[in-house]
Design a protein that fits this description.
Length: 171
């Protein structure tokens, strides 16, 4: 379930607008974590061996198993989140000139923070989003839709945080 709420608060010549967005019930296959636990992180030291059977880290070599054997629920995580998507603070200077009625100075921040238990960079990633839902040929020559990447995090870049400052005038 996706949800969001926008609210604008005003006091005298100040205005504050906040947009909060979230998702509940989203699961993500964290293939980045899978790749790291294979042999690149300290978690690999606790992987399953015949003498270390009390662990949830798969055995060495799981990554190369045939028929996708390395994909298992150990790497599926709850990716529910709450994100402050946009926050804008402005101040309007009223003017009584013939040319300009007011000048507004504002600052805006996007993706300020995200609350989530997801261990990856961003619980809202889409590994194949760059393909714009077009059918593309994968390495084996089969057609593949970009929708196949939804719910898959494989070295995805997190959402960008940006800050904007501006001035607008009403004539």
């Amino acid at each position: 379930m996706n949800f969001g709420m926008t609210n604008t608060f005003t006091y005298k010549h100040f205005d504050l607008t906040a947009f909060v967005y979230g998702n509940i019930g989203n699961d993500m296959l964290n293939m980045t974590r899978m790749n790291l636990e294979w042999q690149r992180s300290t978690e690999a030291l606790n992987r399953w061996t015949p003498t270390n059977t009390n662990t949830d880290i798969p055995r060495n070599g799981f990554y190369y198993m045939s028929y996708g054997g390395y994909i298992n629920d150990h790497f599926v995580e709850n990716a529910s989140f709450l994100r402050l998507r946009n926050l804008t603070l402005g101040y309007t200077v009223p003017l009584k000139t013939k040319a300009i009625q007011s000048i507004r100075v504002y600052g805006m921040a996007e993706n300020l923070f995200t609350i989530s238990n997801y261990s990856g960079w961003d619980p809202e990633v889409d590994t194949k989003g760059y393909e714009n839902d077009a059918l593309v040929k994968n390495r084996s020559g089969n057609n593949q839709s970009a929708n196949a990447g939804v719910g898959l995090d494989f070295n995805s870049y997190p959402s960008m945080r940006s800050f904007t400052f501006g001035v607008s005038a009403t004539f």
